[in-house]
Amino acid sequence: MNAAYTFNPQLDMCPLCKSNYISFLYAIVNRNTPFTVYKCDTCKFIFMNPPLSEDSEKLLYDEGYYTGNALYTYYDERNVEQYAQYVWNARLKTIQKYVKTGNFLDVGCSFGGFLNAASHYYSVYGIELSQYSGKYAQQRFGKDVIHIGTLFDHPFPHGSFSVITMIEVLEHIRNPYEALTECYRLCAHNGLLVIQTANMDGLQAKLQRQNYGYFLPGHFSYFTRQNLIETLARIGFKKIKVFQPVDFGVLPKLLKSRMNFKTIKDYTSWVRIAGYHYLSKIHCNNFALTSSMVVYAFK
Predict the structure, then answer these.
(1) How many CB atoms are located within 10 Å of the residue 62 CB?
(2) I need a labelling partner for 293 at 20 to 30 A (CA). Which of 3, 112, 243, 279 fits?
(3) How many domains, the chain?
(4) What pLDDT, in 10s, does the model give residues 22-55?
(5) How many CB atoms are closer than 10 A to CB 1?
């Protein structure tokens, strides 16, 4: 791993169910930032062990993360909002079926694109770990609206939010049980928590093993459909609904994908995207062909 990065001491218990029965699973060496993951023999939760240190975690999300000038990168949504909005609006259309109005919190809000879409229906707030993207979101919405930090040092009162979203964020959190518990506390009565993450019980993840693309340096936590549902229920959520692959149709995905198109030939990728989407609909209980899922949990 890059010399700038350090690890905390090795964990001796599962971060999700707190069981002491854990065992080595994979060494992830196909990255510039190698690490190891363990699996809980009790609940089947998979987690980075030893975990990256908190200081190193913050280094991951500096400007280079969004500009492609780092070992671990993600796209800058500001450059592609016109395309990303198709997915944001499709998701909001589904959320609107359950919760029409109220306060809306996006955990991991980045530059605030999704919040901007949600602001047409809700009073929006955000939490963002990255100073780089968080400061931009603060300029956009205000410092009292966007908290630069985590679920564990925010200023928001419990019971404040009708909707909380964690879109591809929960895997970035090293202490998931405590994070989900805090989301439960922040939810208002009948509030909705929306989580998008990978299902490690999916055949996709099982076949690809240590080469599965979700094993990334910034990902601490890897769930199955079953252990995520069981954890949410144990915390107190009274109704849980799982969408596979996601909580909207294939068209918004296709329209969003145009953000990467350079020539007319790029449209051939729609065959792959649509194929993956419809394969993801083949699932039964904890079995699924692919590893995509979105979970709605109601307080």
Answers:
(1) 15
(2) 112
(3) 1
(4) 999 999 997 778 899 999 999 999 999 999 999 8
(5) 15
